[in-house]
Design a protein that fits this description.
- Helices cover 23% and strands 27% of the residues.
- It is α+β, with helices and mostly antiparallel strands.
- It has one domain: Beta-grasp domain (Ubiquitin-like (UB roll)), CATH 3.10.20.30.
- Strands 2-1-5-3-4 form a five-stranded mixed beta sheet, with helices on one face.
Length: 94
């Protein structure tokens, strides 16, 4: 169920999540008022995905970036209608 003020946005998921949740779609439309509600909506579709994206504080996990219009977001960041939300994972190497 979505909130009355929820905005419909496009979400782009990273390969790392698609490997963990092969039934998930790379691009999908979600209605959510803010980033926290977006994560909850993803978790409702694919149980456990929310725990991959946010921790118990609650906060977006340190190795995850959720970007809207090129800006890193927090759970309370509002989502405007038509926004594209990118979920990114950290890249490491050496």
């Amino acid at each position: 169920m979505t909130e009355p003020s929820a905005a419909s946005c496009e979400v782009v998921l990273p390969d790392a999540l698609l490997r963990l949740y092969p039934e998930a779609e790379r691009r999908l439309t979600v209605a959510a008022a803010d980033v926290g509600a977006l994560i909850d909506a993803l978790d409702q579709r694919w149980p456990g995905m929310g725990a991959c994206l946010k921790d118990s504080r609650p906060s977006v996990r340190k190795h995850i970036s959720i970007m809207i219009d090129g800006e890193r977001t927090a759970l309370e960041t509002k989502i405007v209608p038509g926004a594209t939300v990118f979920v990114l994972t950290a890249v490491s190497g050496g």
